[in-house]
Write a structure and sequence with these properties.
245 residues, alpha/beta, single chain, Ribosomal Protein L25, Chain P, 2 domains, eight-stranded parallel β-sheet
């Protein structure tokens, strides 16, 4: 007996829309979304797309009309609710353009709930294009099937972050001077992973982090990792421990 193909197929175009979605809603797309569907993909009336809004989950929609600068779609079916997201924050010192884009993209794919760029004394990049990074998050979520976008915070000084640290959230920081293996240090419940800059934390910063009762220094193995590699490794280890993988 032949296998029944999945429906709707996973190959359908998938878009994030900022507006709330609902059954039978008619939506007029313009700008980049319309250009992508009408010009790049050359979709015709009757073609199907998947949509998500970071609120109500994922929806199936059908293209109604395609014009030069606008595409009209009609929502036809609710496919799934907004996903439950593990309560993990990623706190990372920004790195140079290209690598920070990769870090943001992979953090989204790996399932973090919140991303906080952190300004440390050795951070080389002290300005970020928040809109560009958010666009990378959206694109990553569209590609990997997420229905919940990670929150992207503004660049925050490390001392400001530590002063307001929540009492119920574990802080696991990658300590190049040594620490516990991350799987052994991780606990159930809200958590955050802190990755320092390419030059590492200063001794004073390390002391300030360790002064937080919720903080635990962790090691990511015997080799020196680039900041973006350390992020991916640490988040993957935590997600495996939390049961998300």
């Amino acid at each position: 007996m032949p296998a029944t193909p999945a429906w709707p197929p996973n190959t359908l175009p998938r878009l994030h829309l900022a507006q709330p979605l609902a059954q039978d809603a008619h939506i007029i797309l313009d700008g980049p979304p319309a250009n992508y569907l009408g010009t790049v993909l050359r979709l015709k009336p009757g073609a199907q797309v998947k949509l998500f809004d970071d609120r109500t989950g994922e929806w199936l929609a059908e293209v109604a009309t395609v014009e030069r600068r606008a595409v009209t779609i009609t929502i036809t079916r609710h496919l799934r609710d907004r996903e439950p997201v593990p309560d993990l924050w990623l706190l990372a010192a920004p790195i140079k353009k290209g690598r920070i884009d990769w870090l943001i993209e992979k953090a989204c794919e790996l399932g973090v709930a919140r991303i906080v760029p952190v300004l440390t004394r050795r951070t080389i990049v002290d300005r970020l294009n928040h809109d560009r990074l958010h666009a990378h998050l959206v694109e990553a979520a569209e590609q990997c099937g997420r229905t919940a976008l990670p929150e992207l915070a503004e660049l925050t000084p490390l001392d400001t972050l530590l002063r307001a640290w929540p009492t119920d959230r574990q802080l696991l920081f990658a300590d190049e001077t040594g620490g516990q293996p991350l799987p052994a240090a991780a606990r159930r419940g809200p958590a955050a992973i802190l990755i320092g800059p390419e030059g590492g934390f200063t001794p004073e910063e390390r002391d300030s982090i360790r002064a937080i009762p919720q903080a635990t220094g962790v090691t990511l193995g015997p080799r020196i990792l680039r900041a973006d590699t350390a992020m991916a490794a640490a988040v993957a280890l935590w997600m495996a421990h939390a049961g998300d993988w």
